Amino acid sequence: MNYHQLQTAELQPPPDFSSVAQQFQKQPAKLHLLHGHSGVFTVGLIIGSASQQPIAVIDGATRFNSYTLSKVAAYLGIPAKALLHRTHVTRSFTAFQTEAAITTKLPSFLATHQCRIVVILGLLDTYYDEQVKPYECLKSLQRIVNTLKELVKQNIHVLIADIEVADPPKGKENLFKLVKDAADDVAILEINENGFRLKGENNYGTKQRYIHARHR
Fold it and tell me: What is the pTM of this model?
């Protein structure tokens, strides 16, 4: 199954996402990182949506659209309108907008809404722009990480869905590591001809456990 198929094909009956979704109902909350195959963006939405709770989505990689959300709804067997109603999306197209969305807009939104789950799609995408200097990236991302950790302390779960680029711009080789080291829980998405699975790992890359097996 490739990413295009994951996005547009008729999805097979889903694996049991209940145990993953339950992590977003447990306390204390955690900062989660999902990386690996580019399907992490869709799977991140599936995991957040499977919680059956309102979610705040920060889309920094232009991965969110109503068509994808309708597919997620069908995949989970829930009404698309209901899912759309409880999904609150903010898009960012520059690193400055990404930081503002997370450090300013997001805390304000969460303070006035009953929303305890945040999904961030492509946190690092805008930071690989050559116009953003490496030192600016590091400072900005540290402010973002600090904000996310404060949200976690308020028992708000945060899921970052992103990919580790193979050849990052010079001076930005450690951006992904910064995010990964900050995460409390890390999982990698693997996809093969049989479907996909999430595999847990710690911050040093040692596999700890399988979270989910393949498609049934």
Answer: 0.85
